[in-house]
Amino acid sequence: MLSRLSPLAQRTISPRLLSNAQRTLVNISYPSPKIAVLELDRPPVNSLSLEMSAKIVESIKEIESNPEVQAMVLKSSNPKIFSAGLDITEMNRPTVARLEDFWRNIQTLFLTLYSTRLSTIASIDGHSPAGGCLLAMSCDYRIMSATPSYKIGLNETKLGIAAPYWLKDLFVTTIGYREAEVGLALGKLYSPKEALEIKLVDELVDSPVIDVALKRADEWASIPEKGRVASKVMLRGAMIQDLEEKREMDVGWFRDFIMEEGVQKGIEGYLKNLSKK
Ligand SMILES: CCCCC/C=C\CCC/C=C/CC(=O)SCCNC(=O)CCNC(=O)[C@H](O)C(C)(C)COP(=O)(O)OP(=O)(O)OC[C@H]1O[C@@H](n2cnc3c(N)ncnc32)[C@H](O)[C@@H]1OP(=O)(O)O
Fold first, then answer.
1. Quick one: which of 60, 205, 221, 244 has the fewest CB in 10 Å?
2. Where does this protein have coiled-coil stretches (predicted)?
């Protein structure tokens, strides 16, 4: 943790040179009393390790604990990557105990972000595959950079794995059954333009995404909280309750699926290709 370094070291080491063990993993700022910005900061690609997921959850709770704050913008410190999704190394020849803990943390991350009383705006200024898309879909509103080379979607099948049932449900809820059926089967990654067409994102911008995200956060923050949160609970409550009831069953599915030798070989091959690239 950055806070474990001496004050002098904290001032003199460039943030770029810090290892992930020394980083805070996320940064929180408050551009105005009603708005928080939660910045993902786990180089190189903001992948979601067990510790990263736990840190995001802790940060959302910290922001929520201030009753004045009404909206939270989720952004990345990386100018080209929102999040590369789950940290694939967590699924590569893991111990069963770590793998199960990892998955419980991912479930908690989804449940916390999807159900927060805060209005959540995803400021997607870069690639957002798989778990990155999960983070974005868990927010209330998604704004993406129009840069044509960026990609967003659920590409799990390309790694030889499947999205868990609750991520599939979230995808169906967001873009509709037929598009989700095709997108999941093909592990499709959409360009920003395609993502807007299927309503995977709500808005595309050419200007810095964060500027528009902060404007939208202001709009969402101006809606009276009680009615806004009641509407959110009505729309999202069933999916949250369903996973709450099935959490341990889902951990079992995940563990058994990932520990299969064939799946392990697939993950190994995918990681090798990523590194070679
Ligand atoms: C029937 C019952 C079923 C039950 C099943 C239950 C559950 C299954 C769970 C499934 C859920 C999965 C969700 C996921 O999120 S899986 C992760 C998917 N993510 C990806 O495929 C993204 C992979 N990354 C990329 O495509 C690119 O890195 C990029 C994000 C487009 C950025 O490209 P670029 O800027 O060129 O960076 P590099 O590719 O060079 O990467 C730099 C560095 O980072 C490493 N890396 C990249 N992504 C990840 C990752 N997700 N996890 C860990 N590490 C990653 C990459 O290997 C490079 O490392 P080196 O510098 O060491 O080579």
1. 244
2. none
